[in-house]
Design a protein that fits this description.
homodimer; five-stranded parallel sheet; 49% helix; Rossmann fold; 2 domains
């Protein structure tokens, strides 16, 4: 969930200065429109890591918009009035009415996460509360509200640096308290709890928007643009009220994303490749023979651009496995039988039993990649798919499966080179079709879809591994090493839940 | 949830014989249409109490429809293949494809309920699984499936009698096993667990349909008609696929319902009234002074037809209370401020703190009564309100509130008499308006709305009490007695959860 927010996003002063006046004007217009014609309230949650700029952002929003129609709702320790009523009462009291925007500094999430980290709320109770919150937010959206949930993220190192720089400046030093530093220590715990909570509550009707908190200009501009975009789309939406409207997938404010951040020049020379390949293949062969693996299973998901080298990588993995214990599932267009079922059905049928490995060559992510880009399903369909896929992988994980997901990224230039090579070499010619050439033209659309996919489905239990695949040797070794490391950790550290009947 | 299914519904032989041929023909037609044009699967769950006719109903459906396009999916103890995969895998395998109907004899609910009763699945784990099931069913419905969930109910006595009569008939005696009798003993536990599970999973997209299982003809005819009705509506629905379609509210097959079953002739003579009134008012005054009440609160919800005597009853309750400790909230048309918020907001704002009483004269049920009948909100809005209201009352309960809900029922004749009387007596004239006369014409629509309301929102934690109100004395005493009994049980037996921060 946090990959895109650890890339070091930055906006320079000149860009910021030229963009802000337009944005402010548009925000004021939208706010006016909301007040005059908007029959819905806007609920904005500002949450995240300490020091990631939560209150600074709220100040900027007040500066940019008409403060008469904004309200900020902060929640400290509950009053005695509040303690003697249900948990959600204080938030109900604070809801903004139609035509207005309410900014929640702290929300129904904050105390739940804090209490969980402090050991006062068990995982089960936390999950129950998240379920309650999902129903509450669904009700809000059904009642017409536009719900925007921001999570401001900092890497651990980023948090430390940010606190130091706040301390250095006398104008901001007061923001840094002893608790701020204490929270750096519990960073890992917060990330784990937050990752879980964000996955549970990343619903199609109110998805999370994770923002990198390091750079003030980037953070302010991005939040402002997202609010503007969501407001404008919602104001223009003429559908019947009562139809839940998911906030839109958001345009980027800079050119940095999880894919452009990859260093595709990474290489492995022939000798190093052979040594490493042998090493990791040997390790993998051992790991699947580990006694603990008899109660687990391994699911490998391969996605990537055409000619990124999925097939070759899969062969290097299976070389380490016993043919009786693995199955490769190549995923092409669905069969007639599969089209007559929910889209996840054709993957469920291939789920391995314990002690086995299933390798998917292309996967259930087709829904949010090819089906989204080609318009094979509606926007509502692929928007809800993120949560459905997270649920699916969570069920696999709960049953003891180890889910390892790879996206193989190849540069435009290298892809072109491989396409041309395939056309030349007789035995590779079957691999290249007119469709592949057409897909190349859609690279920007696929690029955006991959970034959204990683942001929304890279979870603690089933994270994405992005593989720099311009050099096939480098890619294959990275894939094998990742599988081994995930397996090793799972077989030694984790206890499978197997909450089975 | 089970009130309507304990009334002794019966269909006589003649009616049954005349209705069945039409129903069968229509079902076959709809099934043909589904096969030829239907781009959706039909998922039918048959669940409920032992001996309530689950397998008999499945047999009847096979007899009435084309068995080539039906499949029955039964789930015994999981195979080793199934045990080594996630819980939902066996159900995914069994899903019917588009154009076909799958009847699930036992489903994703059965084992969860059974394990919970056997103490192998904690309440928290049960809730988590129900959440998972809700998401799964939402996905099915979003993917186009029509999901019909039947729960066959018998009263405890009904179950005993039914087992005896099955045993008596040599053709059915084999159905009754030692386990069947064992289950009579755990009847209470099953009801409690089932009530909870049905409340949790009574979603707008896949609500439960509770059917009384005593009479074979009633059960078969009702199930057949509901399936037909749902199929026809879904086939005629031309909206975009992907729009969740809730199964329709179902027409009744006989004239018996929770309201017609009331004996409105019940009376209390003046002397008995005075004694009883004094007794229960005294008891109530004591109970709200009970030390345990300092950590609880009391919420009284009054609904009823015009002139049913809500105001008078409320005055008899408050006579026993200290004016500093209660608040009466009369609910009329929402104010401008309230209209700018979700419909539950105006009730949330009046939730009492601990040690206090709030009396709502008309309530949040306006959504599924007047707003439904008068068309003030869309069908989708009032359909989702049942679950939202259950969630709301569950939150109140979890926080220690005791929620007591009354529907005051008055006969057509008595209502007319009271209207006329009000017109005559000067100081009562303000109580009667043209609108009251108009509402009288809508009695049948209100009648149906009240029955649906009781079926869908009478939960274990906040049950409805239906009050026979033709005699005001009888009604007032029943109300006071009910409040005292609920309070007494709550203050002595129950532990409030107060899972507070």
């Amino acid at each position: 969930m946090f990959e895109s927010a650890e890339l070091g996003h930055k906006i320079d002063k000149t860009t910021f200065r030229s963009e802000v006046p337009k944005l402010r004007e548009a925000l004021l217009d939208a706010q006016f429109d909301l007040r005059e014609n908007g029959s819905f309230p806007v609920v904005i949650l500002i949450s995240g890591v300490d020091g990631a700029g939560k209150s600074e952002t709220i100040n900027v929003l007040y500066e940019w918009m008409d403060p008469r129609f904004l309200s900020t709702l902060a929640f400290a320790a509950p009053s005695d009035e509040e303690r003697e009523r249900p948990f959600m009462w204080r938030f109900w009291r604070a809801l903004p009415p139609k035509g207005r925007m309410g900014i929640f500094a702290g929300s129904w999430y904050s105390s739940s996460i804090a209490h969980h980290i402090a050991g006062k709320l068990s995982r089960g109770d936390l999950d129950q509360r998240m379920d309650q919150i999902n129903r509450f937010e669904a009700m809000l959206v059904n009642e017409g509200a536009l719900v925007l949930k921001f999570w401001f993220h900092l890497s651990k190192d980023g948090q430390r640096q940010r606190l130091k720089s706040l301390e250095r400046d006398p104008r901001t030093a007061w923001r840094v308290t002893r608790e701020s530093w204490a929270r750096v220590k519990t960073y890992g715990k917060l990330q784990e709890a937050a990752g879980h909570v964000l996955r549970m509550t990343n619903t199609p009707w109110a998805p999370w928007i994770v923002i990198e908190g390091t750079d003030d200009r980037y953070r302010s501009l991005t939040v402002g643009k997202i609010i503007l975009d969501a407001l404008q789309k919602r104001l223009a939406d003429t559908r019947d009220q009562g139809f839940p409207v998911a906030p839109p997938i958001v345009q980027k404010t800079d050119s940095l994303d999880v894919l452009t951040a990859l260093d595709l020049t990474q290489k492995l020379d022939k000798k190093a490749y052979e040594t490493q390949l042998a090493k990791w293949q040997g390790r993998l062969a051992e790991l699947v023979r580990h006694p603990a693996f008899a109660h687990r299973s391994l699911i490998l998901a391969f996605e990537g651009a055409d000619a990124a080298g999925k097939g070759g990588s899969i062969r290097r993995v299976t070389a380490a496995l016993d043919a009786r214990h693995y199955q490769i599932v190549p995923v092409a267009a669905p069969t007639e039988e599969e089209r007559a079922q929910p889209y996840l059905w054709r993957f469920w049928r291939h789920i391995p039993r314990h002690g086995r490995v299933t390798i998917f060559d292309r996967t259930w992510y087709g829904r949010v990649l090819v089906e989204r880009v080609e318009g094979f399903c509606t926007e509502a369909d692929w928007l809800r798919a993120y949560a459905e896929i997270n649920d699916f992988e969570h069920e696999l994980h709960e049953d003891g499966a180890i889910v390892v997901k790879f996206w193989l990224q190849v540069s435009d230039k290298e892809q072109l080179r491989r396409f041309k090579e395939r056309e030349k070499i007789a035995f590779k010619r079957f691999k290249i079709t007119d469709e592949d050439w057409r897909n190349r033209e859609k690279r920007p659309a696929y690029h955006a879809a991959v970034c959204d996919m990683v942001d929304r489905t890279s979870t603690g239990t089933a994270p994405w591994t992005l593989v720099e695949a311009d050099d096939k040797s480098f890619a294959r070794v990275k894939i094998l090493r990742t599988i081994c490391e995930r397996l090793e950790r799972a077989l030694t550290d984790e206890k499978p839940k197997n909450g089975k009947d």
